[in-house]
Here is the input.
Amino acid sequence: MKERREVFPGDEVAVEEEYLASDGTFASDGKIYASQIGMLELDREEMTARVISPNPPNILKERDIVFAIIADTRSTMATADVVATDGNIRDVGGETYATIHVSKISPGYTDDVSKELRKGDYIRAVVIGTKPSLQLSTKDEHFGVVRSLCYRCKSELVRKGKTQLHCEQCERSYPRKLADDYGNVIF
Ligand SMILES: [Zn+2]
Here is the structure.
């Protein structure tokens, strides 16, 4: 049997003789208090008291699909800042600094990260690891660059074939690992 009600931080929610302090609570002097706003859940079978937040932080996990902005490229990897998760409008909590190893960028062999990704590119990627740091992959066809601006004139680059972007102002083309829907993603 579960009892539920809304509580606020500091509210006394139970006594330690009856319940164990679990998520969202803390024990002090034999009493259990809420440590966050949320729904109190007193579970009589498990003898636990927990407070469930209505908006838990959106911590990234493996297989999450994310949008990120490339921060830098080096010889063996790119670094990126995760700005959103696909299909979830909540802010990304926890770690947002991510790396993409050169072997995880495209399905083929790549020896030069800068031919695939560039600083400032918006990418869609999948989380492939979270420890010890966030790691992304853009190998699949739905992953890769979804929006990019020309680094010289800042106009929006247009897709040219499967692996090139083109600046109509500068009349130059640049190689990229593109997502299959490049240019059709609304931010
Ligand atoms: Zn340009």
User: Anything to note?
Assistant: The chain has a mean pLDDT of 92. The domain at 2-52 is CATH 2.40.50.100 (OB fold (Dihydrolipoamide Acetyltransferase, E2P)). The two ends are 44 Å apart (CA to CA).
